[in-house]
Amino acid sequence: MNAIDKALSSDISLGLLLEALATSPDLPLAFRYDGRLAKPGYHVTEVKAGQFSALDCGANPEAWAETFVQLWDIEEGDRTHMPAGKFAAIIRKVSEHVQLDGSAKLTFEVSDGVQPMQLYCASIPVISNGVVQVELLPRAASCKPRDRWLAKQAQETACRGPANAATKCCG
User: Fold this and answer.
1) Could you tell me the CA-to-CA distances from 97 to 3, 49, 91, 121 in Å, in that order?
2) What is the pLDDT along the chain (171 residues), one digit of tens a residue?
């Protein structure tokens, strides 16, 4: 298995996904979620962009851009997984009519038309056996103030470690 990009991430942006797919436009693109590959007949049924403003549970204002790609996971005839370049072309076509922010949070909405739609974030594409695979991981809810506190604690712990004693990473 060769990672298209050596960076490990489980929540990439649309821009990063498109950059990675551009390296292998002729290879089939398969999405993996819930331990299985999406069926070869999957459709990109909708791409939408949103700007969100919110107040988190700690009364902190939040604002972000998000792009949603809706996948309909169906079997259709003898179709194969679409090439990575075709997926990118669909996104380009959408961008002619909808302003897409390449750095926006990327969310996949996936359903087989029977089960309720589920939300996923995407990992860096990986080439395996001549197929570009994108792992979709469930998008969990979180408490933003707690997440910020945990990140700060992790940074402070890393800065106090013996390897960093000679450096001033915590200024």
Assistant:
1) 32, 11, 10, 24
2) 444 433 345 789 999 999 999 999 999 999 999 999 999 999 999 999 999 999 998 899 999 999 999 999 998 888 899 999 999 999 999 999 999 999 999 999 999 989 999 999 999 999 999 999 999 999 988 888 888 888 888 888 888 866 655 555 555
Task: State the pTM of this model.
Answer: 0.82
Same-domain check for residues 84 and 118: yes
147, 161: one domain: yes
Pairing mode of beta strands 43-55, 118-122: unpaired
Number of separate domains in the chain: 2
Tell me the residue range of the domain where 167 lies: 142-171
User: Residues 114, 163: one domain?
Assistant: no
